[in-house]
Amino acid sequence: MIGAFRNVEGSREAPVEDWPYEALVSTIERGTVGDWLPLIHAIERSPWGAVARRVEHYLSYSSPYGVGPLLGRTIVRARTVAEGRERELVAARVRELIERSGLTREEFAQAIGTSRSRLSTYASGKVVPAATLMVRMESVVGSSQSRLRA
């Protein structure tokens, strides 16, 4: 790690999320790979979080040779990975709702106002349904379970 932040109040031992913007800039501009790792790990943990946004802001007006492209690619990669995980979570939720409904896929698709093939794209994760459609799916499950109990 490089020494104390220049002209900045703060500690390198503090979480990166707590660093002042100037400390982040100082680390990017004057640091080495070991200094950039905490930034990279913070971006990977929270691709749309404060550190990623601040690095993104910095890169909007400066791109230091080497580390600029590295940090830019880190943000893109972290967001792509996170979106893939989120997409799979939504697909798993769709599959769970279909199963809990007790309906066939054809019946479930009709109940939510779509085709079986479109429902299949939601269940596979190829397409992410709108939030309103997820609410409709939840409603169909609630209705079908109420009918089963009656």
| Share of residues in helices | over 70%
- Terminal-residue CA separation: 67 Å
Q: How many helices? A: 7
Order of helices and strands: HHHHHHH
Tell me the CATH superfamily of the largest domain: lambda repressor-like DNA-binding domains
Q: What is the assembly state of the chains in this entry? A: single chain
Mean pLDDT, all residues: 91
What spatial form do the alpha-carbon principal axes imply? elongated
Helix/strand/pairing category: mainly alpha
Largest sheet: none
Please write the CATH class name of the largest domain.
Mainly Alpha
Number of strands: 0
Catalogue the unreliable spans. Answer: none
CATH topology of the largest domain: 434 Repressor (Amino-terminal Domain)
Relevant terms:
150 residues, 434 Repressor (Amino-terminal Domain), 7 helices
Report what the structure shows.
This protein is elongated. The protein has helices spanning 21-30, 33-45, 50-61, 67-101, 105-112, 116-124, 131-149. It has 150 residues and is mainly alpha-helical. The mean pLDDT is 91. Helix 2 packs parallel to helix 4 and helix 3 crosses helix 4. It has two domains: 16-62; 86-149, Orthogonal Bundle (434 Repressor (Amino-terminal Domain)), CATH 1.10.260.40. It has seven helices and no strands.
Task: Give the helices and strands, then pairings.
Blueprint: H1 21-30, H2 33-45, H3 50-61, H4 67-101, H5 105-112, H6 116-124, H7 131-149
Helix pairs in contact: 2-4, 3-4, 4-7, 5-6
